[in-house]
Amino acid sequence: MNPVAGAIRTPDQRLRVFVSSTLKELAPERRAVRAAIEQLGLAPVMFELGARPHPPRDLYRAYLAQSDIFVGLYGERYGWVAPGEEISGLEDEYRLAPRELPKLVYVKETDAPREPRLAELLHRIRDDDGASYVSFAAPEDLAELVRSDLTTLLAERFALAGPGVREPEPEPEPDAVAGLRAEAALPAVLTPLLGRTHELETVAGLLGGDARLVTVTGPGGIGKSRLAIEAARVLHERFTDGVAFIDLAPVTDPALVPRAIAEAIGVRDVGGGGLDDKLRTALRGRRLLLLLDNFEQVVDAAPALRALLADVPSVSALVTSRILLRVSGEHGVEVGPLPLPDPERAAAARDATAALDDAARNPAVALFVERVRAATPDFELTADNADDVARICIALDGVPLAIELAAARARVLTPAALLERLGRRLPLLAGGPRDLPERQRTMRRTIEWSTQLLSASAVELLTRLGVFAGAFPLEAIEAIAGGIEDGDLLDDLAALVDGSLVHQQEHGDRAVFTMLATVREYAREQLDARADARALRDAHARWYIALGEQAEAELEGPRQLAWVARLSEEADDLRAAMRHLLDTNQWEHAAHFAWTLYVYWWVDGHLGAVHAWMTELLDAAGDALDDLTRATALYFTRAIGFWQNPNDWVVPGLEESAERFHRAGDRSGEALALISLALALLGAERPDAERAAGALDTALDRFREAGDQWGEAMALVTMGRVALFQQRLPAAQADFDASLQVATTQGDELGAAIAMHHRGWAQVLQGQVGAAAEQFSRSLALSHGLGHDEGVAYGLEGLVAVAAAAGDVRRAGELLGAAEVLRERTGLYNAPSFSFTGPFIEPFATGPLATEFAAARRAGRGLRVAEEVAIAMTDASGAVRAMGAPATDASGGDVSEAGASGAGEPA
Questions:
Q1: What does the buried/exposed string (b/e) look like for 330-361 if buried means 16 or more CB atoms within 10 Å of the residue's CB?
Q2: CA-CA 20 to 30 A from 167: which of 589, 628, 741, 771?
Q3: CA separation (Å) from 516 to 221, 439, 505?
Q4: Environment class of residue 47 by beta-carbon count within 10 Å: exposed (0-12), middle (13-18) or buried (19+)?
Q5: Rounded Cα gap, residues 240 and 172, in angstroms
Q6: φ/ψ of residue 586, rounded to 5
Q7: To which H or E segment does residue 528 belong?
Q8: DSSP 8-class letter at 163
Q9: Are 297 and 248 in contact (CB under 8 A)?
Q10: What DSSP line would sit under 781-846, residue for residue?
Q11: Nearest to 805 by CA among 851, 836, 834, 782
Q12: What is the pLDDT of residues 262-315, one digit of tens each?
């Protein structure tokens, strides 16, 4: 490329919008578009600003290469074709625009005929799936369209710039993956799929072709989930970025389906920006299959799912539901019962061996035999029992879950005895609502039949288990099982497991239990019909509140990682407990519960949900709350995402929160509110560093009075930020050093990682880049171990500066690209970040190495982040050794803006 390509920049380094059009014909429209772009604070790139009416091809290629968005305006004229050229500059600009560049095309309505070559060009543009194509009538209409479209596009694709240059962000490469938290894996399957060859080929064929939304339908227990999981496994090579499994059984509100998808693919809801925008940004460009299980109870979310697929064409969805979603583009595949054996054919067989072979090949019989052998390995299908087994399958209509439940009884009953009991019991059972499909009633009758084979205490336990939303440990069962008469809890639980009504799993040294959605639904229906349902849900909530109280201290110490993992396993029931507390107006308990799990909500990316809960609490109860409850709710609604809210709303709210914590005698709560108040004061339109420093001094005193070392470390980190804001770099480093010492003493790996990251920037801004490399690398390793995506992104960004200071353009670009992808894929891209990479990469981005840097950056975006983390940590020491010259001195730069921002939480 012509050397000028690497040098052309807009003066203010704002996001650049390239405007392509004929000049005189569309002069009013060009003025309207320029005004719209500038009103959004962006930089229009228009050739009328240059020295010639039609610049050389290399020149506008250079402008295109360094623009972020392409806007095309078209009227009646095709434009001038230069001597020696075959196409006009207008068409050439569109052709040269990089494919990954967002393209907004506006065509003026006209009664006059368009020039033939323009009509041909517009026809090709309409067929381009990478371009938005809209018509307009007048310049003022065009201006409004451009403002609206750019606002939407920016929300989806771009983050606000940090200090220094804002570079174009390329689209995620197809083979890149999400951050450290992988997509929710497919459930483990230990048994073969029987009798579903045709359905499997149909689903795989649809998704392997042009279909992007396939819904597998059928009644409960028919095997929809099993089929969908197998189809996803078959399709794994087509979906190069994997499959994300989203179990919607615990989700009852259709509005929460996007949140469930976001959590499954690793998007962190930290309360900043719209979750829908984050979800689309995280998915864009990825060949990913979303497997959404149990969609029938949130079917009103179907339009939202359809809109998501329309916005992200690289993603497909496989849905299981008892009913079709009824949206455009949906392909339905109905799953019926397993093929049934034919007793008459067996009776007519030429001999017993042939009859037995025929029965063994039947999928329903094979499933029964396979399930019985799981409990009784020596079970055999014989000529004596084959007819009974066949009639059992017929009685159960070939419904797989019904067959499994019946087979679970074969460890104590022969097939003949089992058939007799089924024949005596099933016709007598009510079978649920009359409007259910016949096979759904069969499934319900089978569950009821299974419960009638249990003791009264085991049936009571099953009903009470309906209170759980997800996986649950034995201790939680004990909390809701008190007072069951004439029963032994362990014996009753074993009976439920033996009967396949409850499944047991091992999570490390802990046993946890689950129920299939159909069984849970049955148990919940029985529970809801009882007078003591509220009391049982209260007991459930009390147990999880106690778990939060136990976790609070553990989350701040050396067992932090283990507790975050455990709470993640029980996240469905944590949410269910909170929902119950809010629905029953137990405001004090709800706020207390939120507060005890603060570190978990933060590290695991759920603060957005907490913000919504506490907003609901304030809206419902307001000033009627006691001091501690209102202080907590104010904190969560003001401190989370404070940078997006008006200063006259956030600062007073945090001041009130701190005062109410003080009146309630909660020193740590008061101190945490003061930390967030200090950050809000620094992030205000007119930063007040002096007042922020005073708030932090008080916060540090309060944490020390409370003996709260975790809080003390957080306060010291934030004090260091204030020092950076005031350009007092040695003082900032001293605060970060003190924070690290406290966190290390506490055994708080998260606090240590945060302190190391800040310490690294204080060092690098003072020119101590070698020492900074070690800090960033250690911080990165700790964050990686914790699964803390935000910390990993920060670590990568710190090492960008290290590589740039060493003159390693390739590593700097790769690390920056990897950090960008991680932030986009985890929803962390639109929060202010505590990084100063801009001054370090600017020479690469704007100088003679710009092309090499951009290529490395693209390569970094295509690497798997976990691989990049390993490479980064390995390379850090080598990068330090390679530095033969003093590091880039960025200490003279303005760090006040970055020092004032940072995450919405105290770290």
A1: bbbbebebbebbeeeebeeeeeeeebbebbee
A2: 771
A3: 9, 17, 13
A4: buried
A5: 13
A6: -90, 70
A7: helix 517-528
A8: S
A9: yes
A10: HHHHHHT-HHHHHHHHHHHHHHHHHTT-HHHHHHHHHHHHHHHHHHT-TTS------HHHHHHHHH
A11: 836
A12: 988 888 776 656 788 889 988 988 899 999 999 998 999 999 999 999 999 999
Which amino acid is residue 551, in one-letter code?
Answer: A
The residue to which tokens 């000033």 are assigned: 623
Compute φ and ψ for 292, nearest 5 degrees: -105, 110
In this predicted model, what pLDDT tens digit does every residue of 427-437 receive, in sequence order?
A: 545 444 445 45
Q: Give the gyration radius of the chain's Cα atoms.
A: 31
Q: Report CA-CA distances (Å) from 362 to 83, 166, 262, 376, 405.
A: 77, 65, 41, 20, 18
Count Cα neighbours of 256 within 13 Å in the Cβ-side half-sphere.
19
Q: Give the DSSP per-residue string, 349-392.
A: SSSHHHHHHHHHHSHHHHHHHHHHHHH-TT----TTTHHHHHHH
The label of the residue with tokens 């979303």 reads 290
How does 587-620 read in b/e, with b if 16+ C-beta sit within 10 Å?
A: bbbbbbbbbbbbbbbbbbbbbbbbbbbbeebbee
Q: Which residue has the tokens 């560093």?
A: 689
Amino acid in the structure at residue 4: V
* Residue 156 dihedral angles phi and psi, to the nearest 5°: -90, -35
* Cα–Cα distance, 272 to 256 (Å, whole number): 17
Q: Burial of 394 by CB count in 10 Å (0-12 exposed, 13-18 middle, 19+ buried)? A: middle
Contact 467, 540 (CB under 8 A): yes
Give per-residue pLDDT as tens, 44-91: 887 543 333 334 455 566 667 778 889 999 999 998 877 667 888 888
Centre a 10 Å sphere on the Cβ of residue 629 and count the other Cβ atoms it contains: 23
Q: How far apart are CA 711 and CA 906, in angstroms?
A: 9
Strand duo 213-217 + 315-321: pairing? parallel
Q: Token pair of 811, please? A: 């590593």
Q: Is 17 helix (H, G, I), strand (E, B) or coil?
A: strand
Give DSSP secondary structure letters for 667-732.
Answer: HHHHHHHHHHHHHHHHTSSS--HHHHHHHHHHHHHHHHHHT-HHHHHHHHHHHHHHHHHTT-HHHH
In the block, residue with structure tokens 């069951």:
484
Q: Is residue 904 a contact partner of residue 642, using CB atoms and an 8 Å limit?
A: yes
In the chain, what are the helix, strand and coil shares in percent, each to the nearest 5?
60, 5, 35
Nearest alpha-carbon partner for 536 in 545, 546, 527, 548: 527
pTM, whole model, 2 decimals?
Answer: 0.69
SS3 of 303-333: the string is HHHHHHHHHCCCEEEEEEECCCCCCCCEEEE
Cα distance between residue 803 and residue 808, in whole Å: 5
Three-state secondary structure call for residue 512: strand
SS3 73: strand
- Contacts of residue 866, Cβ cutoff 8 Å, sequence gap at least 6: 180, 784
Q: Encoding tokens for residue 182? A: 């992988």
> CA 907, CA 804: separation in Å to the nearest integer?
25
Share of the chain above pLDDT 90, in %: 41
